[in-house]
Amino acid sequence: MKKKDIPKDKISKAIEVLIDSGVDLSTLFDQGGLLKQLSKRLVEKALESEMDSHLGYTKYSRSGSENSRNGLSSKRVITDNGVISIEVRRDRSSSFEPVLLPKRQPRIPGLDDKILSLYAKAMSLSDIQLQIQELYGAEVSESLISNITDSVIEDVKIWQNRPLESVYPIVFFDCFVVKVRQDKRIMNKSVYVALGIDRLGIKDVLGLCMSENEGSKFWLGNLTELKNRGMQDMLIACTDNLSGMSEAIGAVYPKTDHQLCIVHQIRNSLKYVSYKDRKALSADLKPIYTSVNGVI
What we know:
This protein has 10 helices and 7 strands. It has helices at residues 8-21, 25-30, 34-55, 111-119, 125-136, 142-160, 216-228, 245-252, 262-270, 278-289, and strands spanning 69-79, 82-91, 167-182, 185-197, 203-210, 233-239, 257-260. The longest helix has 22 residues, at 34-55.
């Protein structure tokens, strides 16, 4: 589909909604969309692997063991950003005691940061295995950790490589910080997010990636991957003043308009104003960034 086939009023409406709501990419995870889905998927995969280890055979294998799977029970788990509902496997002898989510324990410490790190790119198998070990926070066998890592990595790769729409009217690029253990130290790392709005106005996190440094080479690689996954065009790329982004967009999507994020520009402007005057200044700025062709 060519650019002229995308209704301009839909693009304008999407921009207005995001500006008026003051959308921040980090709040998308607070509101429970992507993060809750990823958390549920990963925890349930890990619990399934624990059950396999407990019974001594996988879900669809035959075994002479007297014990076997016996349906599911639902459990509510408290995370830093809300509550998720997890389906926990049961066994007939009621001897299964999950290590990740023990009975009567409603919280998994540090779950959100670990989930985001696992699904971000640029993590080796050993990095993912280390994250799983930290997620468990308990002494468990190496074979169990290896089995859980193997089951989780498949789901992670499927999510990372899922096909995308051919055209997105708007794609936002931003980052947020999570804590990651590296070289026996806890450090902050930036997780970069590509958030697309499709032609129906629905938000979709297209990808997560993690890197020590940003630059044109880093963004060129990520944009090329989005194109390889099916995103042939985007009308507007909205970013903060990210290093090397303009050059990368020009190389991969030469017809795309690159717009600096208005929300970031407003926030940067408000830094120079006293707190009591910020609300009034925000109201004065709105006619400027919502005007047509700069005419107020």
